[in-house]
């Protein structure tokens, strides 16, 4: 582990030293946005995305690596997609330039494809029999831990969706009730003028549908702005939650809101039908 600093922000991070020509066999370094491969070279270091965001650096910027009262400025040659923990990647030559000593490896990568969890345990126990090996870590285990940490967040998201849906439904019901109650005299007048039931319903409910569509469009733009703030507040230091705009999710949310409007309109049909023309016209505005 080492300390890196940029823009008056410092972080203790894990560093991985690996030959750039062999990196692709073990670690897939790529940009999250354009999916382009990042080549690990002697020209600089590669940072994981959350670490780069925390330090407020981008590709081509310089960072300072601190170790044993020594400081060394290096160039960031890439920002890699990563969701668990913060890492800095460099080649053995770059390590030699930064720390002014040859690399002494204390961790090794190994590919072991098509292996079950029981076989993993057996293999790990065999490795531990070697006194020079202190422990083993499987990528599958890290992935499972990452998924477990997000499972609690998923329940919170569903809770927010449920509460928002209930609030939306109650607001629509109350607005429809208030709208009809305040316009009883007007609606009763339309009845006396010979408006059919369906014509009267279209007159009232058309407004609700138009307002729902306009509100949904406005809500999408506001929601996109608020989304980043909510995601950042839910993040922990070792986990990155990307802010991504999903068109399908937006369409689903709009359809849910429209369905609430249609349900509310259906519920209000009886209220319109029960409007007493005589009593409404007698009422004082």
Give the overall silhouette: elongated
| Sequence of secondary-structure elements | EEEHEEEHHHHHHH
Biggest β-sheet: strands ordered side by side in the sheet: 1-2-6-3-5-4
Q: What portion of residues is helical?
A: 40-55%
- The tally of beta strands, per DSSP, is 6
Structural class: alpha/beta
What Rg is obtained from the alpha carbons, in whole angstroms? 30 Å
Poorly predicted spans: none
Helix segment count?
8
Largest sheet: 6 strands, mixed, barrel
Strand residue percentage: 5-15%
The average pLDDT is 82
- Gap from first CA to last CA: 76 Å
What does this structure look like?
The chain is α/β, with parallel strands linked by helices and 285 residues long. 53% of the residues lie in helices and 14% in strands. It has eight helices and six strands. The chain has helices at residues 49-55, 92-99, 117-128, 139-182, 184-192, 197-234, 247-273, 277-282, and strands spanning 2-6, 9-17, 45-48, 62-67, 70-80, 87-90. It has a six-stranded mixed β-barrel. Strand 1 (2-6) and strand 2 (9-17) form a beta hairpin. Helix 4 packs parallel to helix 7 (247-273). It is elongated and about 95 Å long.
Characterize this entry briefly.
With 285 residues, this protein is of the alpha/beta class. It contains eight helices and six strands, in the order E-E-E-H-E-E-E-H-H-H-H-H-H-H. A hairpin with a 2-residue loop joins strand 4 (62-67) and strand 5.
Quickly list its features.
single chain; 285 residues; alpha/beta; 6-stranded mixed barrel; 53% helix; elongated
